[in-house]
Amino acid sequence: MKNVTDSFVSLGHWPSAGSFGFNTDILATNPINLSVVLGVLIFFGKGVLNDLLDNRKQRILSTIRNSEELRRGAIEQLERARARLQKVEMEADEYRMNGYSEIEREKVNLINATSYSLEQLENYKNETLHFEQQRAINQVRQEVFQQALQGALRTLSSCLNNELHFRTISANIGILGAMEEITD
């Protein structure tokens, strides 16, 4: 410390430099210059440095708040998307199950309708066969009856006289007329 004090005192006692001069002793002048510069920087720069640091702190805090808000918003959107996905999956499962049920129901209905149609076709076929059989039987009966009647008429013609022949023919015509009415 004595060197620092001596350097201030020695400024006034330089005979070669006159009233103003330069101290060329680097070791003596550097600490003084540094202390003066640091003092001025601390005195004047303290406010600026504090302002810079406060501004930086505010920007960092603002960025953190914005990031937190964005994070919360993203989490809310994610939760909404998850809820919507779950709802859509449930609806898809419901549609799938309803679709399978509807397909099974339609399949059963189609099988039942086809079975019913086949039964009706079978009934129509049986009715048609029965009708054709009855018609064939009736035709055979008529043929047999016609042949029997012709044979009987021939026999009667040869055995009967005209009056008996005429009554027999009239009776047979009446029987035939009655049979035709029954078959129609």
UniProtKB/TrEMBL annotation:
<dbReference type="Pfam" id="PF00430">
    <property type="entry name" value="ATP-synt_B"/>
</dbReference>
<keyword id="KW-0375">Hydrogen ion transport</keyword>
<comment type="function">
    <text>Component of the F(0) channel, it forms part of the peripheral stalk, linking F(1) to F(0).</text>
</comment>
<feature type="coiled-coil region">
    <location>
        <begin position="64"/>
        <end position="98"/>
    </location>
</feature>
<keyword id="KW-0934">Plastid</keyword>
<protein>
    <recommendedName>
        <fullName>ATP synthase subunit b, chloroplastic</fullName>
    </recommendedName>
</protein>
<keyword id="KW-0138">CF(0)</keyword>
<dbReference type="GO" id="GO:0046933">
    <property type="term" value="F:proton-transporting ATP synthase activity, rotational mechanism"/>
</dbReference>
<keyword id="KW-0066">ATP synthesis</keyword>
<comment type="similarity">
    <text>Belongs to the ATPase B chain family.</text>
</comment>
<dbReference type="GO" id="GO:0045259">
    <property type="term" value="C:proton-transporting ATP synthase complex"/>
</dbReference>
<feature type="transmembrane region" description="Helical">
    <location>
        <begin position="32"/>
        <end position="49"/>
    </location>
</feature>
<keyword id="KW-0175">Coiled coil</keyword>
<comment type="function">
    <text>F(1)F(0) ATP synthase produces ATP from ADP in the presence of a proton or sodium gradient. F-type ATPases consist of two structural domains, F(1) containing the extramembraneous catalytic core and F(0) containing the membrane proton channel, linked together by a central stalk and a peripheral stalk. During catalysis, ATP synthesis in the catalytic domain of F(1) is coupled via a rotary mechanism of the central stalk subunits to proton translocation.</text>
</comment>
<keyword id="KW-0812">Transmembrane</keyword>
<keyword id="KW-0150">Chloroplast</keyword>
<keyword id="KW-0793">Thylakoid</keyword>
<dbReference type="InterPro" id="IPR002146">
    <property type="entry name" value="ATP_synth_b/b'su_bac/chlpt"/>
</dbReference>
<keyword id="KW-0472">Membrane</keyword>
<keyword id="KW-0406">Ion transport</keyword>
<dbReference type="GO" id="GO:0009535">
    <property type="term" value="C:chloroplast thylakoid membrane"/>
</dbReference>
<keyword id="KW-0813">Transport</keyword>
<keyword id="KW-1133">Transmembrane helix</keyword>
<comment type="subunit">
    <text>F-type ATPases have 2 components, F(1) - the catalytic core - and F(0) - the membrane proton channel. F(1) has five subunits: alpha(3), beta(3), gamma(1), delta(1), epsilon(1). F(0) has four main subunits: a(1), b(1), b'(1) and c(10-14). The alpha and beta chains form an alternating ring which encloses part of the gamma chain. F(1) is attached to F(0) by a central stalk formed by the gamma and epsilon chains, while a peripheral stalk is formed by the delta, b and b' chains.</text>
</comment>
